[in-house]
Amino acid sequence: MHTTYIGHSGFLVETAACYYLFDYYQGTLPQLDCGKTILVFASHAHQDHYNPEIFKILKSMGMQQITAVLSKDIPTKKYPQDIACMKVTFYQNYELPCDTVLHTLLSTDEGVAFLLQCPEGAIYHAGDLNDWAWDGEPEQDNRQMTGSYRHEIDLLKTYQKEFLEGRPIDLAFVPLDPRQEQYYAGGMLYFLKKIKAAEVYPMHFWEQPEIIDQFLNEYPEYRQLIQRNFINRRS
To answer: Which end of the chain is more exposed for a tag (fewer CB within 10 A), N or C?
Structure first.
């Protein structure tokens, strides 16, 4: 599987037969093979995770086999025209094109997170599923947020055992948001503690990739796991 960083939480994963495009917001796509199917995932309706212009962009590039996989909170009026659309909700399993199976989790913000089984491996995209603790928020609210997040990651661990037979997730896209200040690493650390993954890509860092370097300096034990150079390969 080949991964291209598009921007913010947007990633394109290419396999032998298919493309998987996650949470396109803005940015330039690489040249695509128009003979392949592309599955376009949007984890929720927030502007920085779903831009319906992506479907016009794909059509202008000559892509013909397009399927949209949209969280149910996205209004129907923002669905693309003349493109197959699948509305998804949390804690469900779905069969998709390209011999792909989707399992969903509940986001701690809006919408869903995605766990995909495809012929070449497993992909996790968190969307806005994160431990959204903040400076200045009541301690009780932050504790509740942390508990909700950990519940979902524990469920993801169950999914990994049940659906992946304990195999590592090949590609994992996980938020690392500098706006959280002292709490920025909480979600990532719990994910790394609980989930087996081969490659972990930080995302949602608002054009501040230095937060990845900060994380790796503070937690050097994860240097082999956390990806950093993908930003330099941005299309």
So the answer is: C
Q: Are 26 and 234 in contact (CB under 8 A)?
A: no
How many domains is the chain built from?
1
Distances from the Cα of 79 to the Cα of 48, 72, 75, 84, angstroms: 16, 11, 7, 10
191: Cβ contacts below 8 Å, ≥ 6 apart: 153, 172, 174, 197, 200
Domain assignment of residue 114, given as a range: 2-231
CATH code of the domain covering residue 72: 3.60.15.10
How many helices and strands (H and E) does the chain possess? Answer: 4, 12
Enclosing H/E stretch for 118: strand 112-118
Backbone angles phi, psi at 149, to 5 degrees: -65, -45
The angle, 0 to 180 degrees and rounded to 10, between the axes of the packed helices 186-194 and 139-163 is 30
Give the tens place of pLDDT for each residue, 84-119: 999 999 999 999 999 999 999 999 999 999 999 999
Amino acid type, 229: N
- pLDDT tens for 132-176 read 999 999 999 999 999 999 999 999 999 999 999 999 999 999 999
Parallel, antiparallel, or unpaired for β 10-14 and 18-22?
antiparallel
Note the pTM of the prediction, 2 decimals.
Answer: 0.95
**Looking at residue 235, what DSSP letter applies?**
-
10 Å Cβ neighbour count for 70?
Answer: 25
- Does an H or E element contain 174, and which? strand 169-175
